[in-house]
Amino acid sequence: MIRWLALAVALAAPVQAGTLDGRLVTFSVETWNDREVPLLVARGRTVVVGKGVEFGLGPEGFTGGLDVVPVAVEIGPTRIELSYPQGIGRFYEAKFNGYVLRFETDCALFQKVSVDPAATTMKGTEVWAETGALYINVSGVGYGPASTLALDLEVADCPLS
User: Fold this and answer.
1) Exposed / middle / buried, residue 54 (Cβ in 10 Å: 0-12, 13-18, 19+)
2) Per-residue pLDDT at 34 exceeds 70
3) Which domain holds residue 128?
4) 161 lies in a domain?
5) Residues 6+ apart with CB under 8 A from 59
6) I want to staple 14 with a disulfide (CB 3.0 to 4.6 A). Which of 22, 61, 125, 143 is the partner?
């Protein structure tokens, strides 16, 4: 019985208060003018946040004339950094065209979300949080190999669902 308890404690240990480390997150790309009628919803990918790049997306094929722009996403304990290793262009303009990160929790995970202007070259990016989801709107913003987007987060002490 003690062995099972030790295993359960060890499995629960990676998630710490006020951090994204160890949390399950699904990352997807969405484009819409009306949230109920999206123009594009790319395949979501789910990982556990840890060290290194969590997501490295590439094109998925055109849907309604739209495709995913290659992006690398690194998630730290209280920071998210996006970079664009290939290609150059401008994101399609819509009410929302960007990324949604859905963390496995039922509470308001983010107490504060802000763009780090010193580490961001992609001006005009809009970010907001809803419960356990983070929305990053890059509609109409230019991107290329030197483009970066850095977000600073104040993470609440939310239990896993």
Assistant:
1) buried
2) yes
3) 2-155
4) no
5) 67, 68, 69, 70
6) 22
pTM of the model: 0.84
Concatenate the DSSP letters of all residues of 89-148 into one string: EEPPPSSEEEEEEEES-SS--EEEEEE-GGG---TT-EEEEETTEEEEE-TT-EE-TT-E
Handedness of CA 103, 108, 110, 113 (dihedral sign): positive
Distance of CA 123 to the CA centre of its chain: 18
Q: What's the average model confidence in pLDDT over 61-79?
A: 86
Provide the number of structural domains found in the chain: 1
Query: Is the residue at 17 inside a domain?
Result: yes
Residue 134 has pLDDT above 90, yes or no: yes
Which tens digits make up the pLDDT trace of 73-119? Answer: 999 999 999 999 888 999 999 999 999 999 998 888 999 999 999 99
Query: Across the strands, what pairs with 25?
Result: 47, 103
At residue 68, the pLDDT reads: 81
